[in-house]
Amino acid sequence: MVENERLRQEMRRCESELQELRATPVAPCPGCEHSQESAQLRDKLSQLQLEVAENKGMLSELNLEVQQKTDRLAEVELRLKDCLAEKAQEEERLSRRLRDSHETIASLRALSPPVKYVIKTVEVESPKTKQALSESQARNQHLQEQVAMQRQVLKEMEQQLQSSHQLTMQLRAQIAMYESELERAHGQMLEEMQSLEEDKNRAIEEAFARAQVEMKAVHENLAGVRTNLLTLQPALRTLTNDYNGLKRQVRSFPLLLQEALRSVKAEIGQAIEEVNSNNQELLRKYRRELQLRKKCHNELVRLKGNIRVIARVRPITKEDGEGPEAANAVTFDPDDDAIIHLLHKGKPVSFELDKVFSPRASQQDEVQALITSCIDGFNVCIFAYGQTGAGKTYTMEGTHENPGINQRALQLLFSEVQEKASDWEYTITVSAAEIYNEVLRDLLGKEPQEKLEIRLCPDGSGQLYVPGLTEFQVQCVDDINKVFEFGHTNRTTEFTNLNEHSSRSHALLIVTVRGMDCSTGLRTTGKLNLVDLAGSERVGKSGAEGSRLREAQHINKSLSALGDVIAALRSRQGHVPFRNSKLTYLLQDSLSGDSKTLMVVQVSPVEKNTSETLYSLKFAERVRSVELGPGPRRAELGSWSSQEHLEWEPACQTPQPSARAHSAPSSGTTSRPGSIRRKLQPSA
Where do the segments described as Disordered lie (predicted)? Predict the structure, then answer.
C-alpha cells in the first residue's frame, strides 16, 4: 500500500510537469528540418545585415570623399580669387607705371625743341655759354637713355601682363575641369546611394518573408511537440517499471562488487609477480647485451682502421674575392659520401676517404663512436689538418651558435659519463699546450713562455708525458670551456695575407678520463687529444716576413716531419722518425698502435687554392692507408691511489688546477696561484 501511494504521488507529479510543458512553448527538436531551415534563414539575415553595414560604410566613405573634393574645390576657388586679385593689382601697378612713362616721354618731347634751338642759336656766343650748352647736351643724352629704359620696362610689363592672362585662362580651365569632376562624382554618389537603398529594402523584405516562413515552421513544430507529449504517458509507466528493476539490482550490487574486487586483486598480484620475474630476466639480458655491444663496437672501430680520415670543405667566403680565381673547384659524389672530386688545372682528380662533409654538414656522428671508446678506456686523438685559412680552428672550436668538434666531443663525453653515473665513477682532467717554433709551452701555466720537454713515463708503460704540464679537474663542459678560454688567450695568432687570424702554433687540448666500475672495481683510463694543427702555407702567398717567416718555416718543417712519419708507418718501416719534431713526438701515442685516431682534413674549394687542396687530399689518402693495429684498452683491477681518491671529491664546481707531471702516476700535486684560480672561477 505504501508503494502504491508513492507511485500515485509520482504520477500526479508527472501529470503536473506535463501540464507545465503544455503551457510553456517548447523549442523545436534538434533534428527537425524546419529548425535547420530557420537557422539558415537566421544566418542569411545576419549576412544581409552585415552587407547593409558594409554598404553604409561605403556610403560614409563616398560622403567623406565628396566632402574632401568640395574642400579642394573651395581651396582652388580661394587660390583663384587670390590670383585674380594679385593680377588686378599688378595690372593697376603696370598701368600706373605706363602712365608715368607716357607723361615722362611727353614732357621730354616738349623740352627737346628749345634745347635744339638753343644749340643752334648760341654757336657764336661766349665760352661760358658753350659750357652751358655742353651741359645741356649731356643732360639731354641722359634723358634720352631714361626714355629708352622706360620703353624697355614697358615692354617687360606688357609681356608679364600677357603671361598673367594666359595663367588666368589655365586656372579657369582647371576650375571647369574640377567642377565637371565634382558633378560626375556627385552623380555617381547619388546612384550608389540609390542602389544601396534599393538593396537594403530588398534585403529587409526578403528577411521579413523568410522570418514569416520560419515562424510558421516553428508553430508547426510546436504542434508536433504537443502531440509527442501526449504519447509520453505510456513511456513514463515503462520507465517506472525499469526503475524498480534497477533498484533491485542496486541492492545486490555490493556483493557482486566485492567478489569482482577479490578476483581482480588476485589477477593483479599474479601479473605483478610475472612482471618482476620478466624484469629480472630483462635486466640480466641487458647487462649481457651491454658487454656484447662494447665488444662489437670496439671490434667495428678496429676493423674500420685505427686512423679514420674525413674531409670537410669550407664554404666560399667574401675574403676569397671574386672572379675566376674564386670559382668553386670541388664537387661531391651524389651516390657515395666518401668520394670527393677536385678540378686541378682543368683535369678532374678523385679521392676516396672514410667520409666527406659538405660545407653545411655536421661531423657529430663521426665523433660519437670515438667518445664511447675513450670512456671505455682507449686513447683517442682527433686532429685537424690543412692549409692556413681552410677552417681548421673553426672546425675544431666553432662558435657559440655552431659548436665545433671540441664542443661536440666534450658534450658527448659528459653525456656518456652522466648516463653511466649509476654504475661507474669518473674523474676527468684537462690540459692545454701549444708547439710554437718547435718549443712546447703550457697554455694554462703560470709562465706560458716556459719551455717544456716530453718524457717517457717512469712506470715502464711506454706512454709519453710532459713534466710540469698543468692539469685541471673538471665536472662539466662549462668548466672545460673556462679552462680552454683561459688557455686560448695565450695562444699565438697573427695576421697574414691568407688568414686574418692565422694560428702560428699547434694547439693540443688533452682530456683524461679515469673510470671505476663500482660493482667490480675495474679501473679504466682513457685519453682524448683534440689537436688543432697550424696550417701549411706558401711564403709567397702568405707574405710572411721576419718572425712570421720563421714561424712559417717551423710550421712547414713540423708538418713535413708528420708526413715522414706517415710514410714510414705506411711502408711498415722498422724505424719511425717520431723524434724529428716536437709535434710528431707528442703525437706518438696517437699515431702508434695504442690509439684510435680521427684526422679531419680541411680543404678550400676555390680555384686559387687547388694546389694546396690537392696536396692535403693526397696526404689524407696516405694517412688513411696506414694500419696501426688494434688499440689496447687501458684497464686493470685494483684500488685507486690516495691521490686519485682526493681528485674524486667534488669540493666545488670551479676547475681545480694541479701542476703535476702530465700522465705520470707517481708525481705529486702543487697548488696554483690564487690569481689564476680567481680567473677561472665562474661568475656569481
Answer: 630-684
Distances (CA, A) of 546 to 496, 498, 540: 12, 17, 13
Structure letter (DSSP) for residue 403: B
Check whether 543 is labelled as a binding-site residue: no
Question: Which residues in the chain show pLDDT less than 70?
Answer: 22, 24-35, 111-126, 290, 294-295, 297-306, 362-366, 369, 460-461, 492-503, 537-546, 593-594, 627-684
**Sequence-ordered alpha helix ranges (H) in 401-493:** 405-419, 477-488
Q: Is 543 left (phi over 0), alpha (psi -120 to 50) or beta?
A: left
Contact between 146 and 104 (Cβ < 8 Å): yes
State how far the alpha carbon of 93 is from the alpha carbons of 84, 157, 260, in Å. 14, 10, 121
Residue 352 phi, psi (nearest 5)? -115, 120
Counting Cα atoms < 13 Å in the Cβ hemisphere of 583 gives: 26
**Cell of residue 357, nine digits:** 662533409
Rounded to whole angstroms, what are the CA distances from 491 to 408, 441, 508? Answer: 22, 9, 11
Q: Is 390 annotated as a binding residue?
A: yes
pLDDT, residue 683, reads: 34
Dihedral sign for Cα 282, 288, 291, 294, please.
negative
Distance (Å, whole) CA 18 – CA 442: 99
The string of pLDDT tens digits covering residues 395-446 is: 887 777 777 888 888 888 888 888 888 888 999 999 888 898 888 888 888 8
386 annotated binding-site participant: yes
Distances (CA, A) of 649 to 477, 522, 673: 18, 19, 21
Kind of pairing, strands 656-658 and 471-474?
antiparallel
Output phi, psi for 658, to 5 deg.
-140, 110
Q: Which helix (H) or strand (E) holds 240?
A: helix 232-251
Cα(435)–Cα(506) distance, integer angstroms: 5
**520 marked among binding-site residues:** no
Pairing of the two strands 596-603 and 307-313: parallel
Is 496 part of any known ligand binding site? no
19 annotated to a ligand binding site? no
Nearest Cα to 595, choosing from 463, 408, 433, 440? 463
Residue 341 has a pLDDT of 92
- pLDDT at site 490: 74
- Would you state the pLDDT for residue 349? 92
Q: CB count, 10 Å around CB of 324?
A: 8
Is 39 within any annotated ligand binding site? no
The answer to whether 600 and 363 have CB atoms below 8 angstroms apart is: yes
Q: Residue 515: how many CB atoms within 10 A of its CB?
A: 21
Is 462 one of the annotated binding-site residues?
Answer: no
Question: How would DSSP label each residue in 355-398?
Answer: EEE-TT---HHHHHHHHHHHHTT-EEEEEEEEBTTSSHHHHHHB
